[in-house]
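tool_call: predict_structure(chain=1)
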Amino acid sequence: MRPDRIVVGECRGGESLDMLRAMNTGHNGSLSTVHANSPRDAISRLETLVLMAGMDLPLRAIREQIASAVNVIVQISRLSDGSRRVTHVTEVQGMEGEVVTLQDAFVFDAAAGVDRNGRFLGKAIPTGVRPRFTDRFNELGIVLSPAVFGTAPAERGPR
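tool_result:
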């Protein structure tokens, strides 16, 4: 069996280690879910879940596995109006020392207020950071305008 994708519905225990191992064997486009309060908490939760596998791995090795396997965290939160919204699209950039580094590409902006039914009008707005994974998209023929990320297009020469 050589799957193109690996999808794990929800990581709640030691199977998280199996998921990370599988994702680190070249299965691009794999997907899983984990319950956490923020993208940073998702990393911490994954660390804890992997430790539950009982393999006695050093924390640094677990973090390296996570940083290598996970490219993007999409955080969905329940807002005070009861709706669920994408509140963060966060890129996992790698390791700096002992820390998995994260960079938000989009964050939810609730500044637009609420409608007459009390539901948030906000939306995900770009932070101005172009994620590194867009280079891989380009290789695959998926071209995204720099405007998607709130960055200016490359300057053109004189007209």
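agent: The beta strands are 7-8, 31-32, 72-78, 84-96, 99-109, 123-126. Proceeding to next step.
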